[in-house]
Amino acid sequence: MVKIKFYGGTEEVGNVRITIENAGKTLCLDYGTRHDGKDDDAAFPKVDYVAVSHGHLDHIGNLAYATKLNKCTKFIGTTVTRKLSEYQLNDILKIEERRRRGNEPVQPNPRDFALEDILDVVKNWIPTEYNKPVTLDGFEVKLANAGHIPGSSIIEVKSDKTRIVYTGDINLEGNLNGDFPDLNAIEKNPTALIIESTYGGEERDTISKEEGKFIEYAEDALRKGKNLFVPAFAIERIQRVGYLLNRIRDAFPEYEFYIVSPSYMKVKDIAYGNLDLSKLTESARPPKDYRYRQSVMVSTSGFCTGGWSKKILEDVIDNENYTVILPSGFLPEGSPVKDAAEKGYIEIAYKNIRYKKKVRADIKRVKLSAHSDMKGLRKIVETIAPAKTTEIYLVHGEPVSQQCLKTHLESLGYKVKIPKKYEEVEYR
């Protein structure tokens, strides 16, 4: 008997942890974290293996906690994903240490981990190439390119007579490195297909059209003499934003163009060595007087929940001389960027004081997404499961998006389920 259990990624974006049990062993698909960092203790199972789809925190943020729970846990993923994971886990550790040294109140984290736990992840990582199966106790795991970010993978797991395919985050339009999903590497009509559904409820323009919108908004702001701020994630999004700004930089010589992110500088060395952003100034911190310069500032994190982007947004959001471009279609509940875009204010905490700052900057939104939309997800399902005998499970999406995609796929004759947290499915 093979059992699938959904510990995370159910009716939410990110936080993916899905176990597959067979012959007394447990393999987990990703071991991520919520965008707000909160979850039930019971949602973190002790596992023998973790197959890692890619290096974004909502998929790898608790890998070190997995090995803290079980020092024998092995990790399966590409070498690029291992390097990205190692860097990001170390970055989390440094941020926590800075908070403890600072004046901010620090809430105890039941899933704290130490440097030795990160080293165990690296030590126990099985580097896996695309399309070369790895045999484990009770499982055979094969990775195929997912086209999401460098090193991202579709994961195929064979156990007994059961074959389970997990897309991870997937993008038919590919990434800046020129990677596209290798759907033909996956054997057709698996027992179960677990597919992300982040944008399952919408059909959007192509990435080239969205890039055109970004350039239009940026050039319009700079022609009007406004400063520009773009919060973006260090992996794939900040590179795409930088690539677009690098194209228009020469038309605005009076402006200073900055990418402010130590994370970006490290990640670029790991996964984007051939990307030319030489017209932009790369820095670990912004100039002290950046608000009084003619500047274009790109910084992490993408949702302004931490890093330099949090401080920059707080500094400029009430300034009419700024345009803020949000390059993400999904904005998590409670994040400063969602509040700014939809409520017209952001909430700022200083020591024990909380207050609201009104939005006076011009807010623009562009969907430079590394995820497929409804059309793309349908094509993925039709390619992997053409016989319509496969059971489809929707994860990594908000309920409205999941329900839209479920209705659409069911109209095509597919069997589709939206699993609840801790739901179990058995195959005999």
Describe this structure as you would to a colleague.
By secondary structure, the chain is an alpha/beta fold. 29% of the residues lie in helices and 25% in strands. The chain folds into 2 domains: 2-202 and 370-427, 4-Layer Sandwich (Metallo-beta-lactamase, Chain A), CATH 3.60.15.10; 207-365, Rossmann fold (3-Layer(aba) Sandwich), CATH 3.40.50.10890. Strand 2 and strand 3 form a beta hairpin.
Major beta sheet, strand line-up: 6-5-4-3-2-1-22
Q: Note the total helix count.
A: 11
Name given to the CATH homologous superfamily of the largest domain: Ribonuclease Z/Hydroxyacylglutathione hydrolase-like
Rg is: 21 Å
Task: Summarize the helices and strands and which ones pair or pack.
Elements: E1 2-8, E2 17-22, E3 25-29, E4 49-51, H1 57-60, H2 63-69, E5 74-77, H3 79-101, H4 115-123, E6 125-127, E7 134-136, E8 139-145, E9 153-159, E10 162-166, E11 192-196, H5 207-223, E12 227-231, H6 237-248, E13 256-260, H7 262-271, E14 281-283, E15 295-299, H8 307-316, E16 322-326, H9 336-342, E17 345-350, E18 353-358, E19 362-365, H10 374-384, E20 391-395, H11 399-411, E21 415-417, E22 424-427
Parallel strand pairs: 3-4, 4-5, 5-6, 10-11, 11-20, 12-15, 12-16, 13-14, 13-15, 16-19, 20-21
Antiparallel strand pairs: 1-2, 1-22, 2-3, 7-8, 8-9, 9-10, 17-18
Helix pairs in contact: 2-4, 3-4, 3-7, 5-6
